[in-house]
Write a structure and sequence with these properties.
Strand content: 15-25%
Helix content: 40-55%
Oligomer: single chain
Low-confidence stretches: 1-16
Number of helices: 16
Radius of gyration: 31 Å
Length: 600
């Protein structure tokens, strides 16, 4: 009988099992530690790669503005590996696994997403835009002897369009990054990237629209004619001012000429009824005079309607049906004069960037009593600036900056009679639309129309504030916009200023006083909730304009007098984004402030 095999010692068996378990645990611990170190090291390396990319991106911008395509290309070649390396460092399986770890994971996910976006921008935006620097220079946007070479603009359309799509994608991707639980440095980095990408996306979108529009508008596919309205903010209209001087700009194969000039005095008498059917809302708020007189076509803030009405009035007067309508104002001319330098007018006056507004909006009325002479002087100044720009006597960088500033302030507006072009213009600051809100910003509108019958609005100071509060028992939020108006004219304005400036009492307004029709627009979906003037209820007109709730009131101010209007709207739900006020570009204004005491 064979002996029974001896049993292993329980201690040995336990030790053996424990040893195996311990080895497994140790292996796991080592693996986790190693993986943690691996992820930590790669995170630091990725951070270094992204930080190295920042100054290079700034350098590329400088080189592009300088038109040095070769240098910009070399810098891109240095930048691209940093961006690609950051993606590689943050996309391996170990990194992705650690994204599942509580607390730490959300930070790793955000860093990976930021790295991917920077790499995408480098490959699909920075590189293609840099490649076209040699084909398009800033000087290409400067006319030479009245002609703008359209060839470079046509050549780069595809690259700019592709870059615009990539930037829009990057902007949307950045906004999808969840930073609710990330550390402050990561949160701040994502916010900074959002800001930079959003600004770049807006700029490239504008550039894309420009290269799509400019060639055809400048006659690449056939001659074009545009009606230019020179708005005078001395007598306010919703989009800027009354159109005293007008001109026809003819374009053909990039050549730009001033074909005809006219004064509003040539349209005296207007038309017995609107030259085009007016929307019921427009007629109810601003009256049928909007479509009867060229000077009143821009009582409405809807510049597409203004353009169509002005085009028809011009056709009825001169027989020419234009391809579009453009506007500028004296402030725009002043910005352009920074690019052209001082210009000597036929009158002998020297107009500069510093004195343009004073000369065109005040001095002219002291010098000339006759309306026609005033319009001739006004038109002559605009024509002189136009001639200098079209002749190429400008600094191209300053010229582009001038147009960009005027466009952002709503001083340059464009309407095209060609539907495809109007669709490209839609949504830009140059399209002259009612205030458009989006997911980030709710916008209100404050539009001013003169009722003085003179040119006193150069003395009108306007300040606005906007805010939101919970004032209602039903829980709906209350939105408020305050408008502070001040007549800054001298005390003796009624006698010291010309009757052409004061209106001479022709429309029942005491000389020296300023009378203004104020129309405030809430956002679609809101409801008018009242209006006070200096904290007292005041009679006003409540209406709707294409879905926008509108409150309108008329205010008359003596020299030195000030008043505060507070408009209110009830919203459907609180809004946690930004609130903004847009409206009539005037001579004296300040950025909106935060409105306190909404429920007062």
């Amino acid at each position: 009988m064979e002996p029974t095999p001896a049993l292993e010692s329980p201690r040995k068996g336990m030790f053996g099992g424990t040893s195996m378990a311990l080895r497994i645990v140790l292996a796991v611990v080592i693996l986790v530690v190693a993986a943690s170190v691996w992820v930590g090291v790669r995170a630091v390396m990725a951070k270094d790669e992204l930080q190295s990319a920042i100054p290079l991106a700034t350098q590329i911008r400088t080189e592009i503005v300088a038109g040095d395509g070769e240098a910009a290309g070399e810098t891109v070649n240095t930048l691209a590996p940093h961006a690609a390396r950051a993606v590689t460092l943050t996309s391996d399986p170990i990194w992705r696994a650690f994204e599942l770890v509580p607390v730490v994971g959300s930070n790793l996910t955000s860093v990976r997403e930021v790295s991917a976006i920077v790499d995408d921008l480098t490959r699909n935006v920075v590189e293609p835009l840099t490649q076209i620097v040699g084909d398009v220079r800033l000087s290409d946007f400067k006319p030479e002897e009245g002609t703008l070479d359209l060839t470079p603009l046509l050549a780069v359309r595809p690259q700019i369009s592709a870059a615009n799509v990539a930037l829009a994608r990057a902007r949307d991707d950045v906004r999808l990054i969840d930073t609710a639980n990330t550390l402050a440095p990561v949160t701040d980095a994502v916010a900074e990237l959002d800001s930079v990408v959003s600004a770049a996306a807006a700029s490239v979108d504008t550039l894309d629209r420009a290269v799509q529009l400019l060639p055809d508008m400048l006659g690449a596919a056939g001659p074009r004619n545009y009606l230019l309205l020179v708005q005078n903010p001395g007598e306010l209209r919703a989009t800027g001012g009354v159109s005293g001087a007008m001109a026809i700009i003819h374009t053909e194969n990039g050549a730009i000429t001033l074909a005809q000039q006219a004064s509003s005095e040539e349209f005296i008498g207007g038309h017995p009824e609107s030259v085009l059917p007016l929307p019921v809302d427009t007629a109810g708020i601003f009256g049928d005079v909007t479509g009867r007189y060229v000077q009143n076509t821009n009582l409405t803030p809807d510049f597409s309607l203004t353009g169509a009405l002005a085009r028809e009035i011009w056709r009825l007067k001169f027989g020419l049906e234009v391809d579009g309508v453009l506007t500028v104002d004296p402030a725009t001319l002043g910005y352009l004069l920074a690019a052209t330098g001082p210009i000597t007018l036929d009158s002998g006056d020297i107009i500069t960037a510093d004195n343009a507004v004073q000369l065109l909006l005040r001095d002219v009325y002291a010098r000339y009593a006759d309306k026609v002479q005033q319009d001739i002087f006004f038109a002559g100044a605009a024509a002189s600036v136009f001639s200098a720009v079209s002749a190429g006597k400008v600094d191209p960088v300053t010229l582009l900056e001038a147009f960009a500033r005027a466009g952002s302030e709503g001083r340059v507006l464009v309407w095209s009679a060609h539907d495809s072009e109007q669709q490209i213009l839609a949504g830009t600051t140059m399209s002259g639309e009612r205030p458009a809100s989006d997911a980030q910003t709710t916008r209100f509108g404050v539009y001013l129309n003169d009722a003085t019958g003179g040119k006193m609005d150069t003395y009108l100071d306007v300040k606005t504030a906007v805010g939101q509060g919970g004032c209602r028992a039903d829980g709906r939020p209350t939105y408020g916009v305050s408008v502070t108006l001040t007549n800054t004219a001298p005390a003796d304005a009624g006698t010291a200023l010309s009757s052409r400036a004061t209106g001479g009492g022709e429309y029942g307004v005491t000389p020296g006083n300023v009378q203004t029709i104020v129309s405030a627009y809430g956002a679609p979906g809101m409801a008018n909730a009242g209006l006070t003037r200096d904290d007292a209820a005041v009679e006003h007109n409540e209406a709707s304009d294409s879905g926008y709730p509108v409150s309108t009131v008329t205010v008359q101010l003596a020299p030195g007098e000030s008043t505060v209007l507070r408009f209110a709207w009830a919203g459907d739900a609180p809004f946690d984004g930004d609130l903004a006020v847009v409206g009539t570009p005037i001579v004296m204004s300040a950025p909106p402030k935060v409105l306190e005491n909404i429920c007062r």
